[in-house]
Amino acid sequence: MDTRTAWFAEARFGMFIHWGLYALPARHEWVKHNECIADEAYDRYFDRFDPDLYDPREWARAAKAAGMKYAVLTAKHHEGFCLWDSAFTDYKAPATHGAAAGRDLLREFVDAFRAEGLRVGFYYSLLDWHHPDFTIDRLHPLRNLPRGEIDRLNAGRDMKRYAKYMRDQVTELLTNYGRIDIMWFDFSYPGPGKPGELPGKGRDDWESEKLVELVRSLQPHVLVDNRLDLPGGGDFLTPEQWQYEFPERLADGSVALWEGCQTFSGSWGYHRDEASWKSGKQCVEMLVHHVSRGGNLIMNVGPTARGRFDSRAKERLAAFAEWMDLHSRSIYGCTAAPAGFVEGTGTRYTWNPKTKRLYVHVFDWPLVHLALPGLGRRAKYAQLLGDGSEIVIWNSSESSSPRDKHCPPDTLMMALPVRRPDVAVPVVEVFLD
Ligand code: GLC
Fold first, then answer.
1. Is residue 340 a part of any domain in this protein?
2. 122 preceded by cis ω (within 30°)?
């Protein structure tokens, strides 16, 4: 782990924030694509963008309380609308007529989150369904126009000019807002697509090498994700809406740097009527699982058009806050357990390589006994992390009980209280020699 990425692996937990004009239709951040909405029709959201309740200090306090150590905000999403005062477009928040008029929403975000001690990053969409030079492709809202019309429109568009526009905007983002920790570019879809489909876009369209060179030249410490279609892509992997079952280990046995990006519900942007919201317990289990496989979790919130986190998001952030208040020691600075450790049934292990402490997250509370293969000789003491109460442990090989005779040699046995602790995920902290 190099010094550039050490903080990221230590932090383990961040907040993603997807916020833009799509909060007004409130039915997914891809609404312009999903409903093939032309610019003129979509402009009704630009004309009505009025986040009168926007106060990123509230957002930052909620993120900090939840135990998040960094936050990444969509400076520009696929719709092309910019939250900051960019000199290269008028399609930006300061140019609207409501509460955002004249305000650089990105600067307020950066100031608020830094004030709470969190690191900050920008999500920047490579796609831009508003920019006049962005050619109509297989994901564009105008993709279903007659092919002749598409060819006519594309003839007047120049992706080299668009790639330069992106470099100009990234220069603004990494010059005017102080130290930035992450640039989260999204996303590449290279190749011709299915027969009859319009092509996608990849590194040659984005001029990805130049983009990364620019980032490195402006702020060399910035972490860049892996979605620029570059071989060996980026500083960290970005599995989305799924999580590794086994840690992705490098040749030296260490775990590759990865960050799972996940949503509370089925949408990144605010979606009023979407109902697939994960429970607070599921969210905590996701965080634990990500770290148990050596990764980070960046959990997304989609603020409303008025600039607030809604009650559903607040409820789940509170669930993180309650659990992290007692259990953050099993997350920060932790990673996958060393190769060869076999998780006990219904558990997830995290491991602090500095303190050599193993954290056993008990997803399925057993009837008293928990067996952890192979740790019988190494474990010296154990306690419930939540209240620091001792958990009695022994080595199955040193037990005369018929129950333990069936265990493999040197299984670590522990006797858990019959009554499951009243926390989202109980954790046993095991001190190994
Ligand atoms: C997917 C979504 C996009 C979102 C991104 C976050 O690409 O389509 O809207 O911003 O995931 O990882």
1. no
2. no
Supply the pLDDT for residue 255.
84
Ligand 1 neighbourhood includes 239 CB (under 6 angstroms): no
Single out the residue in 295, 330, 365 at which a domain terminates.
330
The pLDDT score that the predictor gives to residue 176 is: 98
- Domain co-membership, 268 together with 398: no
Kindly state whether residues 288 and 355 are assigned to the same domain. Answer: no
419 C-alpha to ligand 1 centroid (Å): 41
Q: Can you tell me the distance from the alpha carbon of 55 to that of 300, in angstroms, rounded to the nearest whole number?
A: 18
What is the Å distance from ligand 1's center to 426 Cα? 32
The pairing of beta strand 379-384 with beta strand 392-395: unpaired
For 30, residues 6+ apart whose C-beta sits below 8 A from its C-beta are: 22, 78
Query: How many whole angstroms separate alpha carbon 262 and alpha carbon 416?
Result: 32
Q: Domain range spanning residue 422? A: 347-432
Q: Is the CB of 268 under 6 A from ligand 1?
A: yes
Ligand 1 site, residue 79, Cβ cutoff 6 A: no
Task: For residue 39, tell me if it sits in a domain.
Answer: yes
Nearest ligand 1 atom to alpha carbon 240:
12
pLDDT at residue 3, as a whole number: 86
> In this structure, are 248 and 114 located in the same domain?
yes
290 and 239 belong to one structural domain: yes
| pTM (2 d.p.) | 0.97
Q: Positive or negative, the Cα torsion across 333, 336, 339, 343?
A: positive
Which atom from ligand 1 is nearest to the alpha carbon of 269? 9
Split into its structural domains, the chain has a count of 2
The model's pLDDT over 53-68, given as tens digits with 9 standing for 90+, comes to 999 999 999 999 999 9
CB 220 within 8 A of CB 227: no
The pLDDT tens digits of the residues spanning 342-353 come to 999 999 999 999
The answer to whether residues 312 and 283 belong to one domain is yes
For residue 82, report the distance from its CA to the centre of ligand 1, in Å. Answer: 16
Q: Whose CA is nearest to atom 8 of ligand 1?
A: 30
Nearest atom, ligand 1, residue 16 CA: 6
Residues in the chain where the model's pLDDT stays below 70: 1
For ligand 1, say whether the CB of 127 is within 6 Å of any of its atoms.
no
Q: Which residues does 251 contact at the CB level (< 8 Å), separation at least 6?
A: none
Q: How far is the CA of 264 from the centre of ligand 1 (A)?
A: 13
- Answer yes or no: do 298 and 375 share one domain: no
What's the pLDDT at 1? Answer: 58
Judge if 407 and 295 occupy the same domain. no
